[in-house]
Amino acid sequence: ETGVTQTPRHLVMGMTNKKSLKCEQHLGHNAMYWYKQSAKKPLELMFVYSLEERVENNSVPSRFSPECPNSSHLFLHLHTLQPEDSALYLCASSQETGGIVNSPLHFGNGTRLTVT
Amino acid sequence: GNSVTQMEGPVTLSEEAFLTINCTYTATGYPSLFWYVQYPGEGLQLLLKATKADDKGSNKGFEATYRKETTSFHLEKGSVQVSDSAVYFCALSDPGSGGGADGLTFGKGTHLIIQP
């Protein structure tokens, strides 16, 4: 069983659809992240949750809505997306203590999203 | 702010060649440095890390030395294999940038292609 599992692996959605990405970590970590990976751009940190509280929101459009119901699960709810939102969305987890990341990030395999 | 700059790819080498992928960084504090590798269709995996000046991280024949004086963390391997073909990301974690689980700052990635 891999440490960080993301579903689905691939998703195609129209601009008027609503869908959700799911991430689950089995590492006992207390921080989880959503990253966006687009071609020829650095990974973009979208959201960070630490102890189930959102601690970072890097000016992400409101059409992306994260949810962290517990320390093992993270969702990204999508609605009315644009074609430029097509990318690989990566979930990661780590162990954080007192605001410092003590362990490297562990990534899932990502969800390849295509918005048509 | 923090930033990571790494050489643009693709880098194409023959099997058994010597590899260097340059990485330099700027940080407000005293960062930890990482190299991640992404194989096709997968998420990022930690390759190696270094947490203080002059530390050398190593794994799978890859090495990188934390050079504070030149703010660099170049990745090297003495003899590459076809299976090393992947995208390599340099990254930093800077606890001095304000605290909080703010993830990592990544470079754009270097696509490495090893030909038999």
Description:
The complex is a heterodimer of chains A (116) and B (116). With 116 residues, chain A is mainly β. Chain A has no helices and 13 strands. In chain A, strands 2, 4, 5, 6, 9, 12 and 13 form a seven-stranded mixed sheet that branches. In chain A, strands 1-3-8-7 form a four-stranded antiparallel sheet, with no helix packed on it. In chain A, strands 10-11 form a two-stranded antiparallel sheet. In chain A, a hairpin with a 2-residue loop joins β5 and β6. Chain A is globular. Chain B has 116 residues and is mainly β. In chain B, 0% of the residues lie in helices and 48% in strands. In chain B, the strands form three sheets. In chain B, strands 2, 5, 6, 10, 11 and 12 form a six-stranded mixed sheet that branches. Chain B has a four-stranded antiparallel sheet with strand order 3-9-8-7, with no helix packed on it. Chain B is globular and about 40 Å long. The model of chain B has no long low-confidence stretch (mean pLDDT 90). Chains A and B meet through β4, β5, β9, β11 and β12 of A and β6 and β11 of B.
Keywords:
heterodimer; A: 116 residues; mainly beta; seven-stranded mixed beta sheet; four-stranded antiparallel beta sheet; globular; B: mainly beta; six-stranded mixed beta sheet; 0% helix; 48% strand
Order of helices and strands of chain A: EEEEEEEEEEEEE
Number of extended strands of chain B: 12
Helix content of chain A: under 10%
Structural class of chain A: mainly beta
What does the largest sheet of chain A look like?
7 strands, mixed
What Rg of chain A, in angstroms, do the CA atoms define? 14 Å
Amount of helix of chain B? under 10%
pLDDT < 50 runs, ≥5 residues of chain A: none
Class computed from helices, strands and strand pairing of chain B: mainly beta
The biggest chain-chain interface is:
A-B, 29 and 24 residues
Strand content of chain A: over 45%
Average residue-wise pLDDT of chain A: 89
| N-end to C-end Cα span of chain A | 33 Å
Order of helices and strands of chain B: EEEEEEEEEEEE
How would you characterize the largest beta sheet of chain B?
A: 6 strands, mixed
